[in-house]
Structure prediction request, 302 residues.
Amino acid sequence: MQPHLLPPLPCYLNGAYSTLPDAKVSVMDRGFIFGDGVYEVVPVYAGRLFCFAEHMARLDRSLAELRIRNPLSRDQWREVALKLIAEFDHSTLADGQNGAKTPSDQLIYIQITRGVALRDHVMPADLEPTVFVMASAMKPPTAEQRAQGVTCVTADDFRWKKAHIKTTSLLGAVFSRQISADVGAVETVMFRDGFLSEAAASNVWVVRNGTVYGPPRDHLVLEGIRYSLFESICQAEGIPFELRRVSRDEVFAADELLLSSATKEVLAITRLDDKVIGDGKPGPVCARLLAAYQRAKAASES
Ligand SMILES: Cc1ncc(COP(=O)(O)O)c(C=O)c1O
Prediction:
């Protein structure tokens, strides 16, 4: 797509607010040359940032792994995000019946790269990081996907062994996701050495005999913000929750199989490869997690 044909979504680049067609970075940006950067995707409900502190904490962890300093304070990040959220609503929302505007559900995408330098694999010290933030519309699962669950496929986890870093080096994830896209499936559930890791852009949960199981928080998975959220929801709901290695057989024998991510929230997988999972419908644990999730959204503050 030619840059000038991009939609005029509001964005922030290195201190200046503009729109996607006008935002430009150097060809020598290490994000472009090496994928040398990190990112975050923060959901926004009715104009309010959801789990912002948790996303900021994960951003700090990813930056520390790459030895990039965080160029903005938490208050500055919040200020940029809130400004883009308001700008997005201002530029896209139609007036409601009474003339009032309803804040929309959005995603705030944050990307920080190491900055601009002549090409050399060695990490140059003291570069000015490149900071990019944009607002876009949230595209949640459809009503049909929520009601029926979705189909996913499995694949070997061929990504690198630092999956815990939310880096913009995403070719492994792109290849993985394409495996499911090629057959019209919603996600690719990956296994490493016969054990569940995660999906291309989501975490994966197994429900068996009423317990929610997920892979451990280690270097082989990206710890989604929903890890701790589900843990606390399960605790409050009296649903047993356990993190441990989960075998491929256990995945296929699940009563319920779930995806989680900022946009999917929690979404049932009802078919995996050519097998029906459980009774082929989204199950009761999925419904309870989703209901509690909606209450958490309603209670969230910016
Ligand atoms: C590889 C991977 N795992 C898990 C997740 C889910 O993370 P979160 O719940 O924070 O959106 C994502 C989100 O993009 C991801 O890319």
